Amino acid sequence: MADQAGAQNAAQSPRTAVVIGGNRIPFARAGGAYAYSSNKDMLIAALDGLVARFGLQGERIGEVAAGAVLKHSRDFNLTREAVLGSALSPQTPAYDLQQACATGLETVVGLSNKIKLGQIESGIAGGVDSASDAPIAVSEGLRRVLLDLSRAKTTPQKLRILSTLRPKDLSPNAPGTGEPRTGLSMGEHQAITTAAWKITREAQDELAYRSHHNLAAAYERGFFSDLMTPYRGLTRDANLRADTSLEKLATLKPVFGKGLDTPATMTAGNSTPLTDGAALVLLGSEEYATANNLPMLANIVDAEAAAVDFVHGEEGLLMGGVHAVPRLLERNGLTLDDFDFFEIHEAFAGTVLSALAAWEDEDYCKRVLGLDGALGSIDRSRLNVHGSSLAAGHPFAATGGRIVASLAKTLSEQGGRGLISICAAGGQGVVAILEARN
Amino acid sequence: MADTYLDLVNTPLPARIAKALGLPRPSVLRRYTPGEVLASKPVLVAGSGPGADALAEELLGWDIEVRRHVLPGEKLSAAVVVLDGATRPTDLAAPMLELGQAVRMLVAGGRVVGVFRSSTDASGPTEAAARQGIDGAIRSVAHELRGGATANGIILRGDTTTTDPTTLGALRFLLSGKSAYVDGQFIEVRSAPAESIADLAASTTAAGEGVPDQPLARKTAVVTGAARGIGAKIAEVLARDGARIVAVDVPAAGEQLVEVANRVGGTALQLDITEPDAGARILDHVGRRFGRLDILVHNAGITRDKLLANMDASRWDSVIAVNIASQLRMNEQVLASPVFSDTGRIVSLASTSGIAGNRGQSNYAASKAGVIGMVRAQAAVFDGAGRTINAVAPGFIETDMTAKIPALTRQVARRLSSLQQGGLPVDVAETIAFLASDAAAGVNGQVVRVCGQNLVGA
User: Residues in domain Thiolase N-terminal (chain A) (predicted)?
Assistant: First the structure.
């Protein structure tokens, strides 16, 4: 029944969009190996690696879409500039996209839709982020003064404007991960959700432990040899702790949720650190892949975005994906049981565990998601089987590309169907379905 | 690594000083550039008999001015001594003495090529003595030549004629700048089956206008260890000659591998060749993307030097695993696969250390001598069936690896060859490109040294 419905949905699409492959650079901890690499540097490195893997030198790709969350104003055309710095044809068009942590996945969705519509035959989607090379802005006071100065004509005017400058105006504005409307950091927001769903410290540490061990095992068996190209001497994700243990994770002090009346459970071990990196996937029509003798790892079936009202406290900030998944499943006539692999982005261990708890909660699913009952539960052995952001790190816009490429390769090796869910700032979430080709 | 002495000694005043002091005076070698003129001055074809006559006739067709005798005062680009009819040691005198006169007239970067038959195929001791004698004489000429000139030989096996396509292919290579650092070497050639040299006519006969710039066009070549050094240069030269490159190296070298792949318009394949499925993964990639594997260059290699007395198992084992065990395993998988072309070429990197041995390199020499053994045994299996396997043994080549040798030792090592300088990675790559081409269809089981006639193991 479910399979028929899935096939029916695929039949509605004019064409099939496939994942051909991917490339990312290892993710570095902020201030680490890529401390002096810009978003453009890293995006070019990821592009050139993808070009080399598939022999795309000088080729005009249909379109390249990528983005960065932390972005300098000079990088307004980041992706196009990266294309011009890469081995691709300079005639390859490109655009920037920004949807916080969902940026990478949304570029995949956008370009796969263009492929399905026949607007393009090939596309490269993904993203990059540097928490090290973050833009620092001047204070609002200094900015005003500088703009006024540029418009002043006479020396007395200029002096008058300068005299309005106050010492506090000279301190710069560094970017933060705080939500503009609540002033709370993402971690503090998640701490509220984690506490609301009564997620224990042990469960969070267990998830982090599995993430590290799954990622380490994937490296061990060479899973990333055709998904990654080393950069600046880094050959593996710098955040990976292959030897971490539940005991070690248990020793870490909580960092978020210390102001709540429940015990604080979120530590540096079960939260993702600030990270630098870039990830891309090569997409194409079946015709493009066949004509160029390129592999087809998986089909991109469908996607859905959702947003929640976290501002008024009605829902947790990172619960967007929780709302998007049931809508996507319904449209495709699928249930959670129809999936073999789940990729739920580990912004925090608590984010994943809150989502799982929410989908298992009959009352919540009925009341908030408008379902007839609980959405269902997920077999942990099918969750983030090659590790996720807790181990790999999370350069915001790069995470979507990392997940899509890894899941597509997993599906090509083991068959089946995969679900991706990525939460994002602003109460948003983007989710997608990938399917093996046979 | 720049050879500053070579640069210095090729400027006027230091050149005079070096000459006065009797110091080595290495020349800047004549290396290949696309569109090169094979011989700007006349070429002497010494020797009498139908083999010499036929070859002289052939060279005329290459747009070369051919002389059968040295003319007083006339410079020569090359001298080809054809001795395929020599049956007694006394047959050598006239042509060799003629060559002696030619050597005086040889331009800088000139070439001497001896063409003769193999003593292995001789009818008896007298004929064998004559044939082996030519070998010794040519080697000595190589030692005597100056000005970046080289002397090499083509040994005709069986009934192979002086104008067989495969003979001409080897001759063209030895006359060209592609063999700049090949000196004192002998390449055995055997008439190749017609089907294995489909494009040979186009690639060797109609010289001047007809020689394609891309003798490896439409061929797919896998180069292991392609991220840097000699491997990167091999990828470049094979790509220049028209081959589609699959550049292979360990995942950790991926960043440099990407640069090479993008420079040559090839694909980068990150894998560890010591993994059991390395050959299968290469075949899978090549089969899917290009359908057929034509050229496999086993270049990847490592050194873990220690005197044998201080050697540990990990040093020994890792060198054997990378340098020879991986090649044997990959060859087994490649040869069993329909993806490998019926006229496929395998070229393996050996080393002069594998021929002569080298202090501190017992493990490395074992692996590289092993390569030579493998190549000869596999060649015997291929014999005449269309596929070939050969080895190239580099001598002192200017790479990051040799740049780590202490300065004085490095200077001495450079001068220990007839060309009195180290070779460049491109010299090794050119020889590999030749062995990978249709022109070398009749070259099988050979170990060609690219060493400037290094005194070690000569």
Answer: 18-287
